[in-house]
């Protein structure tokens, strides 16, 4: 970042947040869609035409070289020397482009450009999700019915701690008062959760005492030794040095490695085009409760015992 960009960023930080949001939207439209109309600001923020005109004028004052007006269509377009004023995070940008901003009550998600992505086959019901997120936010326990592969349908008291997206489904990390353990519970197997207002949460039931959640594992992923084009893998994963280092929680490491199709066998024995990456040191997963979910993982203990991941 050069000195001019740094000065502009500092100037933006002094503006009210709502105004920064409007300027960021202008920046987004120019950068990723290549055009901006006054109506875009009016519709997005439900502001009047005069207010939108002032926002665009302020943007032009800050970065006059970023946009130029097409008088025929009254559309602003990014100039040849356009440099974004804001740092746009890739995940948020891709979500906006593929699903829209989703503003408004009951609005259907509409992509901003043509795109295709897999439909989610398993989503929590809102009547189940809401009590769980309230419990996480307020530090409360819930009572619910839960159907598991191992025990069938039972009644449980859980202390929900966090939501987890495995890429295939959502689950909640929680303390289970029945087993007296921290475990993973799938949303779609829950029924009628009720917030327990008068059931105090003990210290040993809180997230600070979930060792698997608190433990951070550093993983070094490298191009799979059997991949025919390791240079392509380095490009795909932005790893010019040949190593991609990621940090994950012990409680979720197995889920993430499965989602990324990382071969975690000690002898990189998994074969297939889906295995572009290999975990250079599978022992990094030692002791992680979710390790058994990692593709090809072999428990180094002689008896091969490991803690079963109860969300399966």
From TrEMBL:
Residues 128-194 form the WYL domain. It comes from the Bacteria. PANTHER family: PROTEIN PAFB, PTHR34580. Residues 20-89 form the DNA-binding transcriptional repressor CapW winged helix-turn-helix domain. This is WYL domain-containing protein. Residues 216-282 form the DNA-binding transcriptional repressor CapW C-terminal dimerisation domain. It comes from Aromatoleum petrolei. Signal peptide: none annotated.
